[in-house]
């Protein structure tokens, strides 16, 4: 199957926390995507980026981390020994220790949902469409289209067009 | 260009359960709850006073934050694929007075009659009443509650209102009072509509601003004059119209119950700024679909009281979103709507 990516565009995020909410709902109070507020007050969603060269996969001593056919980086709870080496090397701090299951868990790009033809819930529900899912070229195309809209909006902001009214 | 998938739990309509649910309010909580319920086979009817579903996502939050198509395509999927029936311009009420966003109401449905007609009801009507300070001059022409101000701008953009009904902001001076997300949005929309000067008055400092320092700094970069540690004490008018705001300087004292340092007005520090519009964004109040006793308890802040099942003090009537938790974020309302819907589903199936 073709590689698919789950991409968060931080410049489009409005900090509404909908991604975190739907993930929280699906994972019963333990969301795999969370908004963090920086000192300057900027909301940043943090989740697994499903790296191509995933450091967690390389470092895992029990070979519990693998990639599925879409390219999602997934932890096998049966093989995980809970050593947290994945968290130590993750550039984003994504892996999370589950005290109940006594293993490390993280975003699996909604593996259960993908199996039945649904997409990751954060991407389906983000009101700002800041979370993208799809083949890399599809996602990139969409991002460039949004950027074009943004540039256009800056250029024509508060321009009154006769007969069309105000364009914004 | 894909829409929000409120029914993100499924792709198509499952076998019907035969149960009928009414949702009052088509904002993030109501639409997410609808999405859950249709994915579990219930028939859903949504009543909303606005001309189209979306709530504050469409009629409050500016388009540069939430693209309009994202919400529109979202509710269209609920309508077309999941056969959710929408009743727009329909206010569900019991003894209610006027509140913001009532401009479009064409039908009024009695709350009690609605409850009789359905197997379960979810109230998700949000917080549509703005706090207005009790100071001289708030009745002047040119003074707006922030939600009303944003509502008019978005209604015109969405094509539900003529631009003639929107305050002509171009070339004018606007003072926004407050420093939350609504205040930031009101200031930003004013800039985008060509205001000559935008001021923001906040009684604490940028460090306490609920919208966060980042948003405030962004506005400052765009030329907004940030007046922290000030509080409006009087709006000056001429011939019934705003001409200036009188502000008083404050200093920060001991922390209050919210943990933030309390602003203390400084005697004799008053000064005036000439403006054409004053927009108050100092908080919202819950707006349940009833103003008289319908057997549903509300707390002293006007929020509907629910139990752990999201059920109100009336059997079969549930509530979710800002009308329960107070003004929050889209995501918080979405989660509350989903949890309430899950609980309604259990209750409907008698579990």
From TrEMBL, chain A:
<feature type="domain" description="4Fe-4S ferredoxin-type">
    <location>
        <begin position="39"/>
        <end position="70"/>
    </location>
</feature>
<dbReference type="InterPro" id="IPR017900">
    <property type="entry name" value="4Fe4S_Fe_S_CS"/>
</dbReference>
<dbReference type="GO" id="GO:0051539">
    <property type="term" value="F:4 iron, 4 sulfur cluster binding"/>
</dbReference>
<dbReference type="Pfam" id="PF00037">
    <property type="entry name" value="Fer4"/>
</dbReference>
<keyword id="KW-0479">Metal-binding</keyword>
<protein>
    <submittedName>
        <fullName>Fe-S-cluster-containing hydrogenase components 1</fullName>
    </submittedName>
</protein>
<dbReference type="InterPro" id="IPR017896">
    <property type="entry name" value="4Fe4S_Fe-S-bd"/>
</dbReference>
<feature type="domain" description="4Fe-4S ferredoxin-type">
    <location>
        <begin position="71"/>
        <end position="100"/>
    </location>
</feature>
<dbReference type="InterPro" id="IPR050954">
    <property type="entry name" value="ET_IronSulfur_Cluster-Binding"/>
</dbReference>
<keyword id="KW-0411">Iron-sulfur</keyword>
<keyword id="KW-0408">Iron</keyword>
<dbReference type="GO" id="GO:0046872">
    <property type="term" value="F:metal ion binding"/>
</dbReference>
<dbReference type="GO" id="GO:0016491">
    <property type="term" value="F:oxidoreductase activity"/>
</dbReference>
<feature type="domain" description="4Fe-4S ferredoxin-type">
    <location>
        <begin position="4"/>
        <end position="23"/>
    </location>
</feature>
<keyword id="KW-0004">4Fe-4S</keyword>
<dbReference type="Pfam" id="PF13247">
    <property type="entry name" value="Fer4_11"/>
</dbReference>
